[in-house]
Amino acid sequence: MQVKSTYSEILRISLPVMVAGVAQTILGITDTAFLGRVGEIEMDASSIGGVFYFVMMMIGMALGIGSQIMIARKSGEKMENEIGGIFDQSLVLMILFSVIIFFMIEYLSSIFIGSFLKSKEVITQTNIFLRYRAFGIFFVMIAVSFRSLYVGIAETRVITYSSFVMAIVNIILDYVLVFGHYGFPKMGVAGAALASSIAEVSGAVYYFIHSIFNKTIFKYHLFRFKEFSKTSIMKIVNLSAPIVMQYFFSMGGWFIFFLVIERLGEHPLAISTVIRNTLMIIMMPIWAFFTAANSMVSNEIGQGKSDEVLALIKKICILSVSTITIIILICLMMPEMILQISTSDVAIIRDSLPSFYIICGGCFMFSFSSILLSAVSGTGATRVTMIIEFINIVIYLAYLFVLREINPRIEVFWTGEIVYWFTMGVMSFFYLKSNRWKGVVI
Predict the structure, then answer these.
(1) DSSP letters of 70-123?
(2) What are the residues whose beta carbons fall under 8 Å from the beta carbon of 240, sequence distance 6 or more?
(3) 400, 260 in Cβ contact below 8 A?
(4) Which pLDDT score is estimated for 27?
(5) Nearest one of 256, 285, 273 to 366, comparing CA atoms
(6) Helix count (H) and strand count (E) of the chain?
(7) How large is the average pLDDT for residues 53-82?
(8) Cβ–Cβ under 8 Å, residues 345 and 273
(9) I need a surface site. Which of 83, 89, 198, 401 has the fewest CB within 10 A?
(10) What percent of the chain clears pLDDT 90, i.e. is strictly above it?
């Protein structure tokens, strides 16, 4: 399907992903919200364990972006008969990659976390969380393959449905497993992890059933699993490998941030957990525009409209900045109410307010910087995005470690988000303006 570079087309692709983002965010913060009613140790454990799992998951999801770019390019070129082969090969690669990630979570996480965390109680609870969370990664990676397909062909509504199935399942199971309602055992942090894993199973099953019975996608020749093309596999790997490294740098930096905060104490970590959840809520609509930018840029290039790409990016940035401005204004009018989503602890809410105001500024920066970075990867220049990410993470971590020495206040640490996204946006902007991406071949 060839997309048009209009505001209505951008919204047609973005809005279902945005609504799906609501459900995904619910899934991400439900564990913390329930465990916040159990105790600070449990909430901290779900935060550290959740970030570690999220790092592993995002590295896996990066592999799907390569196939998404290729599918969008083929869709723009009207070579729909080749899309199924790309999807099938991507699905097999995802399953194989999920095995690696599973063993990393299952066998390396306890060693890694035990080496960096200070609180023995948090270490114990984090290991329990990850033990029940690990098997979900197989189904996350299957879902990522389907998500890459549907974003690539610009049919994003199914992503909304799958995400809501996951959110509903997670909320119900969190309620019965964390607190032990309706005859279920009271599992605490283990129950929250198990609920999320089962929710991920339900999301993958929904994608599979939808794809089997949806006649409109038969033309893409899915699930044929013909002899694999070494050329196609290498294209996916070559496109995805730099993105995997990019996400590794990004998520690794995010995890190190929480390790630094943990050493400040359990209360600062609890504050950062609340701020992380709030940040996910505020940033949620922007991820939809991020996804649209990646796919639409690749589709436009596939149509031979490279000269219209910058105009398309400008339109997406306008929509993204306008959306985040409205959200930030709403958040600033009711900050305590927003923070109460994650915790009922009055002291944590009060002490989170300075950090909350800072991340509002960071989110404004994020609203256009993320689009510019996504557009760079959409051109196929994934090695460039990796280099940009690496440079920014070095700057970000250096900034954090300097702050730790001179002003170890939790709200000051969160200013790192503003520094990170500002430098990201500047570097991405100048690369796009250079037109060097026009020479990239995928």
Answers:
(1) HHHHHHHTT-GGGHHHHHHHHHHHHHHHHHHHHHIIIIIHHHHHHHH---HHHH
(2) 62, 63, 64, 65, 66, 67, 382
(3) yes
(4) 66
(5) 285
(6) 16, 0
(7) 79
(8) no
(9) 401
(10) 10
